[in-house]
Amino acid sequence: MKKINSLITPFFLLGIILIFSSCEKDVAENIVSDDAIQQRSAYIEKGYTEVEVAPIIKESCFFEEWDKNILTPVSGLFEYYDSDDNLVASIDFGDGTCDEWATKTWDVDVFPEHPHGSIEFSVFDYKKKK
Questions:
Q1: Segments forming the whole domain that contains residue 90
Q2: Stretch 80-97: mean pLDDT, rounded?
């Protein structure tokens, strides 16, 4: 009986270690820039003309929170015009700083349902492990 117990204990401990080490962690596996394609497409789908004022420039930026380098848009500017060539919105990817944020600005007279006129948003698309 002692021999069986001495064999069961190591297997039991090994099983516990495997269970705890294989638990799924809530960490994004793939973090990629989507170049604000959803925000840009929304303006185009509403009939606004997209003008690339400055192309998107990407750099490999290190992010401590994910402990990895990610190809990130650090600058670029898109403007959106109505059929009368009035500027109605813009998306600005920044001044060259390595961060995950872009700024969307819009004319509150054209979009009164969004009275703030500006918002920062992440340019990353987070894909979780399954």
A1: 27-128
A2: 98
